[in-house]
Amino acid sequence: MDRMIGKKFSISGMFIEIIGDDDETWQCQNITTRETVFINKTTLEKAIKLGKAEEISKQE
User: Fold this and answer.
1) How far is CA 3 from CA 7, 31, 40, in A?
2) How far is 4 from 26, CA to CA, in rounded Å?
3) Are strands 36-40 and 8-11 parallel, antiparallel or unpaired?
4) What is the pTM of this model?
5) Which of 13, 22, 25, 59 is the most buried (most CB within 10 A)?
6) Of 11, 50, 35, which Cα lies nearest the Cα of 19?
């Protein structure tokens, strides 16, 4: 699961970056507001599968 840390996603109009693993939730930072939010791992997985969340590709 550590492979998720550092990934960025667009979900529900927010752009988030996963910054930590807190058991059943991901500790995330809203990229725009720099606010820390916690998202249930199962919820994020389902949102990705349903196309409601998508990974933001790295532009290097």
Assistant:
1) 8, 19, 16
2) 9
3) unpaired
4) 0.82
5) 25
6) 35
